[in-house]
Structure formats: C-alpha cells, structure tokens
Amino acid sequence: MQLKVQESLSNLQNRFSSSTADRKFGTFTGVFVPTVLTILGVIMYLRLGWVVGNAGLVGAILIILLAHVVTVTTGLAVSSIATNIRVGAGGAFPLISQSLGLEVGGSVSVPLYLAQGVSIALYIIGFSSGVLSIFPNLPELPIILMTFILILAIAYTSARFAVRVQLLILAIVGLSLFSIFLGSFAIGGQSGMVNTPVLWGDFPDGNFWQVFAVFFPAVTGIMVGISMSGDLKDPRKSIPIGTMSAIGLTMVIYLLLAIWLSRVATVDELLNIDPGNIVMADKAAWSWAVVAGLLGATFSSALASMVAAPRVMQALGQHQILPSSNFVAEESATGEPRHALLVTSVIVLATLLFAFFGGGLNAIAPLITMFFLLTYGTLNAVVLIEQTLGMVSFRPTLPIPRWVPLVGVLSCLFVMTLVNPVFSLIAIIFTLAIYAYLLRKKLRAPWGDVRSGLFMSLAEWAGERVSRLPGAPERTWSPSVLAPVMNAETMNGSYRFLRSIVSPQGSVRALGLYQTGHRESVEKLDLITQAFIADGVYARTTLLKVSDFESGVSTAIEVLASVFFRPNILFLPLFANEQQVDLENLLNEIAPFKIGVALLARHLVIDLGREQLINVWVREQGPDWKLGMRLSNLDLSVLLAYQLARNWQGRINLCMSVTDLETAIKARAYLNELIDLARLPAKTQVHVIEAPFYEALRQMPGADINFFGLPNDFDPAFLNEVIEIVGASCLFVRDSGDESALA
C-alpha cells in the first residue's frame, strides 16, 4: 500500500514538473520573437528614412553600425555570463546580482523596470498615431485607452497567449518587409530603385550625433527577450542564441532598408516626416502592408514589454527589494505574475494620461534610453570584472575576448553623454540613490557574488605593488590591534576602549586561545567582531588551541608577522585573564617581531570615567631636548592618545615630571613643540611639575586614563605602584619602532 502511495506521489510530481516545463518557452518564442519585434518598431517605419535623408547612405550605415556596437557587445556579454550561471527570473537582475550583489542588481533593475514600463506608453502612443494616420477623424484618447486595455487583457490572460499574438504580428511585419522588397522593382506602378543614393548628407535637421541620438532607441529592445529568463525552458541556451540571432537579423534588415530607401526615394521625400506621410508605405509594393506592419510592430513592442516588465518586478519582489515585495512577488496558479502586472498597468496608465494631458512624454523619453544604457553598461562591466578577476568560478561555455565588454562599457558611457548629459546625470544619481537605500536594507542573497573576490584581487595587486616599493611604515601606520583572550567576556569588557583606539581606519583581530575541552569559552568572539563591523571597524576572529596563554600569543605573533596586514599592537587587559600570565616572559618573546604593546589596567570602580581627559606622561628628554622623527618610546602613546581624544571628543594633557625650574622651562618648550609638530588638537595642554615622578603623579589633576611608557626591562612593581598612586585607569605602552607621531 505504501509503495502504491509513493508511486502515485511520484507520478503526480512528474506530471506537475512536466506541466510546468510545458508552460515555459523555447528560444524562438521566448527570446527571438519578442526581441525582433521590439527592435523592428516605430523608428524603423517612421524615422529610418529621415536618418538616411539627413546622413546619406554612408552616414546612415555608419550610424546603424555604431548603434549596434552597444547592442552587439552587450548581447555577447549577456550571452557569455548566461552560460556561466543558473539564470533566474528577472533577466538582467539575476545576471548582475549574482556577480555584483543584490544592491547593485536592484539599483540597476529598478530603473530598467521603470524604463520598460514607461516605454509601453511610448509604444501605445506610436500605435495610436498609426491608427490616426489611417483614420484622422477618430478621437485620440479613446484609441489610446482601448489599445491599453487590449494589451493588458492579452498579457493578463497568459504569456503564452501573448506569444501567440506576437507570432501573428511577426508574420504581418514579415509581410511588410516582403512588400518593401517588391518595391525595389517596377511592380504595380512603383518606379523601383532608380535614384542615385546620396552617400553623405548635409544634415539639415541636425548634426551627425543628433541624428544618431534619434535612431539609437531603435536598437534598445534586446532586454525584452532577456527579461523572459524565468519563463524559458533553458535560459542558458535560449538567451545567447535568441538574443544574438535577433540582433544579427535586425541589423542586416536595417542596413538593407537604408540602402533601399536611398535608392527609391529622394532626399526631400525622406526628410518629410509630416503625420500621415510614411515614405516606406509610399515606395512599397503594397502600402497597406507597411501600415499594417507599423501597427503590428508598435502593438507587439507594447505587448512584449507588458509581458516582460512585470517579470522583472516579480523578481525584485522575491528578493525584498521593492516596497510591498511579497505582494508583487506572488503569481497565479499558472505561473503568471498578475499582481506585478496590475502594478505595471497602473504605471503605464498614469504615464499615458500624463503624456496626453500634460504633453510630458517627450520630456522624459530620453530618460528611458538612459536607464537602458545604464543596464547595458553594467552588464558589460559584470563580464569585464569577472574576466579581470580570473576566478575559477567564471568559466562560461561561450567565452568572449576581454575587449568586447570593455568596448561595451565605453560605448554605453559615450552614448549616454552624447544623447543627453543632463538625463545621464539624473539616471546615475537616481540609481545611486536606490543603491544607498538598498544598502541600508541589509539584503541577504541566496547566492554568492564576486565583490569579495574583486576587493581581494585589489588587495593582492596592492600587496604586490607595495612589496616593490621602499617601506614607509610611519606614513602608512594605522592601529591594527591583536587582542588575545581566553574568555570572550574579557574582549566584551574591552570593546568600547578598543573601538575608540582603532576607529575609523584601524582594525581588530580577536585571538581566542583555548585549551583542550574549553573551546566554548571563546566561541562567542564572532558576535563581538560582528559588533565591531557594524560599528564600522574591520574585525576578524581567530581561534587557536594552545597549551598556555604565553605560547599561544607568541606563536600567533610569529605566524602573523609575515602577513601583509599584520597586527602592529598587542593589546592585553592586565590581570583580566583566567590564568596568571607571565608578562615578562611574554614581552621578551615577542620583542624581535616589532609589535607595539598596550597593557590596559582598568580601575575597578570608575573604569574610564567620563571618557574626556587623557594624561600622557612623557619622560624627561634632556640633555639635548631635540625632537627627531622618532621619539623615545613615546610615538605610540601620542598616536593612541590622539585616537582616543578624537573618538571621545576629549582633551590630551602632556605631563612631565622635572627636578628644577631650568629643566621645567626646557620641558615646556619641548612639549609645546611636540604639540605643534605632532599636529595634536589645539586644546591640548602642557603640565610640567617640579617634583619627583611619584610625587608628580599625586599632584597632577585626575584624568579618565593615564598613558605611561612601558620600560624595556619589565618591572611589575613599577606598574602596581603607578596604578595605586594614580587611582584611575592606566595604559602602559611600548613602541614597535615602526610608528612616528611626527610623520
């Protein structure tokens, strides 16, 4: 009985999988047809002749080829990356997100979705203009609204029904092109190709680049087929074949049409763009076929975008990128993103009404092209980055030379600047604003991306370059703290202090040392390092099994001494470890590795007080009292005091104990010069006390923390006596020799 139930469940699952696969599209219907119909649109029928009339045959061919540089390079880039990953729903969105992260993918795909949505309104208006050229007495708004409702109804019914309609429209467009071909001959009263073409035009309606800007939107339809990625049976195969074949075919058609137009029409006829004048219809064998093709092309472009745009929105909703993401991410039982379709229809209707009553569509139309170009440029950049990183994970079955995406990126930037610099800037600012918004959302991607690999490659490159340069550690110094603990709570108690001495450019490496059977005592260090990262401090955790604390620390320092970003300060809270630490032995062992030392003795009652006043005790610098590039075991103290003062917004006191008035005068001059050359805050004060050192400690006003140089000959008695006299937290510091407060 159980076996029969399992067989029934298996059969049901297979049927469901089969039915789901049956609903998906192949290369021809899913990618090729919508891409071809979107590219062979209103520009081809109504503006290609105007381009030839302005630029001449050679100029028009040059414009067509230059425009296709963008689409061919982008198509190859998309094809390459599509053969390297598992392409999900949303077209460009998964292609970008799986390489550069959800934030970049979302920030580019939201404008792309809006561009596709607004372009639907453009196509509907183009369709209504075609209808009005046949029936000029009809009211325009009802035609626009009826066209919108018809397109929405077809798309709402199902994508499969929309594709069937597109196949019919493809046949109509094909018939119009066949009629144009017949117009090359003297058939049905047509004169055929009798004119001598003008090779280079006079550009009466604008210069070369202005004419180029008018033509370029004709070739921006390649994203329609790519946006169907979630509805394809095999997107890895269909996207490359469908996209590149569509680009290749339409480019040949545009080139042949340019040649045909230059031979069948005069320059004056080509430049005449009055409503109702369609030069292709006038010169074709059957003018009605060309008008039908115009209507079919604009209708199909609107329909293809109405099917594709909601799928981009649905993909964005599935990854919580949009407001009300769960709503737009839902789909019907047949797999249709109907909620996203309804939202898209609202955007389209609002755009149509705005265009009709406000006349503002022409003003925002260039922004649509900018968003498309931004997407194309990003797709090329994705492939270029992947190729440059050279990671093993990037091994597409359709490899392309590196110059292809490079040309794609540069050409997209060039065309954006050329078409409209103002709208280019607006598009970039809008995209960056979305990126900043998505960063704050802290999105979690179900896949990895190459961002870490990108920065790792940059770090490796930088490390290689640095190794060839003469060392200058004093100019490049920033606090990089190694904090070994045998209990995570010890690190937790030092958190605020560590953050204050390393922020904003420093780093913390938590070293969790544990003995056999006691790993749990340091496992929570990861939570603390994550808190550092959340506060903008680079932090990492390393766990190491050791026999004792001293050997673990010295081993870690010895291993880390050769790494590129090695720690330069050993931080130890005094008497905070669970076992007694032999500091004298430990400090002697690590001395050869040139690492600074900071021992923090926290006051048991007042701790760090108000975190305002910092006393830095300076030893007497006689007899010469001269400041060199390196101070006598004082550089690290001054640098850490500066870090504390900056992050606490506190004040530094430079303190010195002297024996007589003459020395006191020299001491004040020395300390004031130190303030000047070390660029310490202006409110830093000098305190020179004429008394023995321990008596000076008693006379000096209290501070929240006192800095003292740590003698080379470690003396626990000195530390204990100073701590007892000061009655506040103390930091005992030893220079590594690589830092300089005057650099």
Walk me through the structure.
The chain has 743 residues and is α/β, with parallel strands linked by helices. The protein folds into three domains: 27-318 and 327-441, Amino acid/polyamine transporter I (Up-down Bundle); 472-597, HUPs (Rossmann fold, 3-Layer(aba) Sandwich); 602-743, HUPs (Rossmann fold), CATH 3.40.50. The protein is 61% helix and 8% strand. The chain is built from 30 helices and ten strands. The chain has helices at 2-22, 27-39, 42-46, 48-82, 92-100, 102-134, 140-157, 159-182, 208-215, 222-226, 235-264, 267-271, 279-283, 287-318, 325-329, 338-358, 361-389, 403-419, 421-441, 451-468, 473-476, 488-493, 495-502, 525-534, 549-560, 583-590, 635-648, 661-677, 693-699, 716-726; strands spanning 480-485, 507-514, 538-545, 569-573, 596-601, 613-617, 651-658, 685-690, 705-709, 729-734. Strands 3-2-1-4-5-10-9-6-7-8 form a ten-stranded mixed β-sheet, with helices on both faces. Strand 7 (651-658), helix 28 and strand 8 (685-690) form a beta-alpha-beta unit. Helix 6 (102-134) packs across helix 19. The termini are far apart.
